[in-house]
What does this fold into?
Amino acid sequence: MAPRKSTAKKRKTEETEEGQRDGDDSGAPGDLTADKMPERKEETRRGKLGNKKYIGAHVGIQGGIWKAVESCTEMGGRSFALFLGSQRSWKRPALDPKAAAKFQEQCSLQGLDPAHILPHGSYLMNCGSPKEDVYEKSQALLVDELSRCSALGLHLYNFHPGSSLGSISTQQCIERIAGAINYAHQQVPAVVTVLENMSGQGNTVGGDFSELKAIIDQVRDRSRVGVCLDTCHAFAAGYDVAADGGVKALLEEFDKTVGLKYLTAVHLNDSKGKLGCHLDRHEDIGKGQIGLSAFQDIVNEPILDGIPLILETPGRPGFEYAEQIQLLYSLCKSQ
Ligand SMILES: [Zn+2]
Ligand SMILES: [Zn+2]
It folds into this structure.
């Protein structure tokens, strides 16, 4: 993948291992402030009372990790994702206990439950790497990130399983990923490691649901493993969520292969690429190849009640996260 341009406001990442990052530099909260759209915020909140869907977005942590909570509520979200530190460094300064306390304080103030907050792992990590040094650094970063979750009072942690880089078999890569998870579980108690399904780009593992199942099977404490289903990745991997009844079919396939009890979260992304293209290119809701009707089915699917449903779309001006969240809530039939 060619290096991409990034602007000061966007998520900045550097890729060291193949396919370990999401398709876009999207995910920053943009410039949404409460005074820019106070009425819509209230209106959206009223519309959500009693709604069992926890829709939100990946928000930035610029200016302090607690800012993520503010960004979430400002855009009318009921759930959010965030990075736990810089995407450019393997070693990060320790989390300031005051910042962690402020984060937790903000969460309770804004009524955000840890069950609806899903940190996203660093793109530097490759827990399936065939390179010993990268594997060790990835294990250490996984432990560090889980510790940060604990310090922030969070229970869930989502990451990309890993890539074989084409130099080991998928099976060997899966063993290494499960090994890293087992190691991290020993080091840090309680936090649930949530594997993300991938688009199947390059040599990444987790495009096929059976690969996720194979990882889970090798995790010793299966009460501490889950799956975050990314709609763009699933579509790019060949699961036709855009077809009539595609959402039901996808969930049935997931249940058959992995088991719905492992379904912990969803990443709501439309796809720039076509079905089965294996390209990890996110698009704004309803603007891509998946289309709005699949998202309407998603926000009306009872199986997805109560879990975080998180946008990682480009969020272009005029159709930023606040608008996309509002649109998705407007599609809910049971408001
Ligand atoms: Zn991801
Ligand atoms: Zn995702």
